[in-house]
Amino acid sequence: MRLQAGILWCVGVLAVASGCQMVDRYRPTYWPFPERELTTYHTPAMRVDAVSEFAMQSTGVDSPEQRQITDQLARQIQLEPDPLVRRAVVKAVAPYRTPMAQQVLEAGLKDEDGAVRIACCEELGKRAEAVSVASLANALRTDENVDVRMAATEALGKIKSPESIKALAAALEDRDPAMQFVGVQAMKSVTGKDYGPNVQAWQQVAAGGPLPPEQPPTLAERVQQMTPFRR
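^ that's the sequence the OP posted. Answer follows.
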C-alpha cells in the first residue's frame, strides 16, 4: 500500500510539474506584469470609463485644482497606446478652461489616429477661441485625411474672427467639391453673409476683397429655414 501511495504521489507531482511547464510554455514572454498583478490589469474600456469621469469634474474656471486634473490627463494621453482611450481623454479635457487643456487639444491635432484628430477639431470648435485658429488652419492645409480637414473647416466656421475667414480660403480652393461645400457653409456661419454656392464670391470674401452682392436664398433654402426640424 505504501509503495502504491508513493507511486501515486510521484505521478501527481509530475502531473503538476508538467502542467506548470505547459502554462509557462504558452505564457507570453513579454508579459509586463508580475503574477500578483494579473487581476488588476486595466482594459481599454476600463480606462475609457475612468477618464470619462474627469469630464464631470470641470468647473469651467481656471484654478490650481483644475490645472492638476488637466496635467494628469495630459500625462495620460502622452503614454496611452489605445486611440479610443486617447479620444476619451480629448473629450474629458475639453470642458476645462486651463492652459494645459488648450495645449492638449491643439497637440492632439497631430495624433497618429484620424478619429483623435477629428475629436480635437470638434472640441476646439465648441470652445470657439481665436487662439485655436492657427492650429486648425494648419490642420486644414496639411492633414492628409479629408475627414480631418472637413472637421477643421467646420471648427473654423464657429470661430468668428478675421483670421478664421482667411484660413477658410484653403477649403474654398480645395479641388474636392465636398470640401468646397463645407467651406461655403463655414463662411456663411463666420461672416453672417450669404452668397449662395458661388465659390468665387466666397474666395473674394476670404481674400479681403470688396464684398459682392448677397444672393437671396432659394425657395428650397427658405422652406428649410421654416421647418421646425434641424439637421
